[in-house]
Amino acid sequence: MQTRLTEQTLASPSGAQAESILRRCVHCGFCNATCPTYQLSGNELDGPRGRIYLIKQMLEGASTTELTRQHLDRCLTCRSCETTCPSGVQYSHLLEIGREHIDRVTTRARGERVLRRLLRYVLPETKRVRWALRVAPYVRGLMPKALAAALPEAPSRASNTQWPAARHTRRMLALTGCVQPATQPQIDAAAARLLDRRGISLLRVHGGGCCGALSHHLNAAGEARAQMVRNIDAWWPDVEQGVEAIVSTSSACSVMLKDYGRLLGYDVEYGEKAKRISALVADASAVLSSLPRFEATQVAPAKRRISFHAPCSLQHGLRGHKEVERLLHEHNYELTAVRDPHLCCGAAGTYSIQQPELSRQLRANKLAALQAGAPTVIATANIGCLLHMQQTASVPVKHWLELLDEAER
Length: 409
Ligand code: SF4
Ligand code: SF4
Description:
Blueprint: H1 7-10, H2 13-24, H3 36-41, H4 48-59, H5 66-73, H6 80-84, H7 91-105, H8 110-122, H9 126-139, H10 145-150, E1 170-174, H11 179-183, H12 186-197, E2 200-204, H13 213-217, H14 221-240, E3 245-248, H15 251-258, H16 260-263, H17 271-280, E4 281-283, H18 284-290, E5 304-308, H19 312-317, H20 321-330, E6 333-335, H21 351-354, H22 356-371, E7 377-380, H23 383-390, E8 397-399, H24 400-408
Parallel strand pairs: 1-2, 1-3, 3-4, 5-6, 5-7, 7-8
């Protein structure tokens, strides 16, 4: 694609990056065929090719309107288009640059600004999420509808949260996280037990927290940096002592952690550390699938019929959903066929709160596809998808690590 970016834009690192991404796009439109928002609206500007064009025009100096922002806001950042693109266009990096630009040159309505600030204040801090879940039943009526609908129930005394003692010489670190420990603390405990049975201790370190993805996707670069730096500082003593890996059990967080090296690459103080962290990060699916196969005699013999939703972050971000499906098969789960497995469920970070209508339509389509094969459980690999689908699914929605752990007990 030919570009005429302004000299001022080209002089910045992000402008130069945008130009090299734009030049790879040959405008073929293959990506539109797998874009969830294009499929729903049929509008070219709600598909990747149209959005790429909008970003190009903005960076070339065209006036930027409220409508331009709406089309970019409607993008789920699911990256299905990247998987489809034959030219290797890094759409998500271009979108990042486009969103940052548009938030600089336009002003959002007051209500939207307040909501985005509230989400950034509450969600990245586990204590605040717990508090919000406790008070939600009393103030639900006063909240914006989309926010009230997206809030999960506060977990009743969570079971299966026991972590094994750190008894092995092989050690890995767990991402502390934010929403997941407040709502589904049993997931990380299941990962710790699975690794313990395989001779590895999964350690929790003090001082870490949210991976920074929420703030990053809401264009709060300073907050995202502070969250990334907090994790790096918390992990660094163990990294220097030779810890084997940093494990994330939520695929969207894994994608973000793997991106620390790129996002902090220009940081004088943390750039090199961030690259080392990114190299050490592994999604739980990559860790477990790289270990020797678990002895079949120790696996529960009864088959259970399940359907698996591979989150976009797992299939398009990490390109790793086949590993999870193989592990589930090995643990005697029978996976149903699922129509259009590449499509997003509509969770997409805070998308379900900010774009509730599109999000609800995507969830209804996804659940219809997942439930068509009459599963007893729906499995997934990301906390956002899990909580989002749980709201209206007719069968329980669980993390695949819980299912593996159940099969081995
Ligand atoms: S598939 Fe790739 S090259 Fe074709 S329009 Fe989409 S982004 Fe551009
Ligand atoms: S990231 Fe997803 S929603 Fe956004 S343009 Fe690509 S396929 Fe469409």
